[in-house]
């Protein structure tokens, strides 16, 4: 079996490299539907036990990754054996690295404006072939959603990186899934803070 179920949530038994490989194929296939990657941390798994709307967001996702060593260890106790952790932050670094070779484009949503700006600078210095099509801080009101969604839609990035914190990022991505016009969207928590330093 190539899936480990943890409290009902299916985690594919994939390494980091295999995960990047799958996302590379998603980019190549040019499907019109957005591919949602959920970085499955213990908090999300626990919330899914009582929150049916979050549960259906996770069930509809293209991929759930093992976000943290806790998830990997639980999988071993249950005999499911996930090969390694694939955290949002590590995955983002790997995607920037691969994107630097493949010239992928990104839009970054989330973190405060100074952090977002600094992270974009660091990324464009470190990965010069990655194109940052746009960015927006993560402290906006719901009435700003339409403007932000429209901006992302018109830019049509390969990757929409949503650093709003879990599970807000997952809900936001799911809510606008059909409008975002990104190939892949991933909620990554505090990764932009890490990159900005
Ligand atoms: N954040 C945001 N808007 C908000 C709340 C949080 O952009 O309304 C950002 C915050 O600045 C940080 C990230 O979301 O960069 C949350 O990081 P955290 O590590 O707390 O996320 P988690 O690991 O819980 O998903």
Automatic annotation (TrEMBL):
Protein's UniProt keywords contain Cell wall biogenesis/degradation: yes
EC assignment: 2.4.1.187
Task: Please name the pathway.
Answer: Cell wall biogenesis; teichoic acid biosynthesis
Q: Which residues are listed as membrane-spanning?
A: none
Q: Which reaction does it catalyse?
A: UDP-N-acetyl-alpha-D-mannosamine + N-acetyl-alpha-D-glucosaminyl-di-trans,octa-cis-undecaprenyl diphosphate = N-acetyl-beta-D-mannosaminyl-(1->4)-N-acetyl-alpha-D-glucosaminyl di-trans,octa-cis-undecaprenyl diphosphate + UDP + H(+)
UniProt KW Lyase keyword: no
Key words, A-Z: Cell wall biogenesis/degradation, Glycosyltransferase, Teichoic acid biosynthesis, Transferase
Q: Indicate the family of this protein.
A: Belongs to the glycosyltransferase 26 family. TagA/TarA subfamily.
Q: What does this protein do?
A: Catalyzes the conversion of GlcNAc-PP-undecaprenol into ManNAc-GlcNAc-PP-undecaprenol, the first committed lipid intermediate in the de novo synthesis of teichoic acid.
This chain belongs to the protein called N-acetylglucosaminyldiphosphoundecaprenol N-acetyl-beta-D-mannosaminyltransferase
| Annotated source species | Paenibacillus baimaensis
Measured against the full-length protein, the chain present covers 2 to 198 of 244
């Amino acid at each position: 079996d190539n899936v480990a179920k943890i409290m009902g949530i299916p985690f594919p038994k994939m390494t980091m490299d295999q995960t990047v490989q799958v996302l590379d194929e998603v980019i190549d296939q040019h499907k019109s539907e957005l591919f949602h990657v959920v970085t499955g941390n213990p908090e999300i798994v626990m919330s899914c036990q009582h929150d049916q709307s979050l549960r259906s967001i996770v069930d509809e996702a293209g991929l759930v990754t093992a976000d943290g060593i806790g998830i990997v260890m639980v999988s071993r106790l249950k005999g499911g054996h996930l090969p390694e952790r694939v955290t949002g932050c590590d995955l983002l670094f790997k995607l920037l690295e691969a994107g630097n070779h493949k010239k992928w484009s990104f839009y970054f949503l989330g973190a405060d404006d100074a952090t977002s700006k600094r992270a974009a600078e660091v990324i464009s210095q470190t990965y010069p072939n990655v194109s940052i099509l746009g960015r927006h801080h993560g402290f906006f009101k719901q009435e700003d959603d339409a403007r932000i969604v429209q901006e992302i839609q018109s830019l049509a990035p390969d990757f929409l990186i949503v650093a709003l914190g879990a599970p807000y990022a997952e809900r936001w991505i799911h809510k606008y899934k059909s409008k975002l016009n990104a190939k892949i969207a991933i909620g990554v928590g505090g990764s932009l803070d890490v990159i900005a330093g």
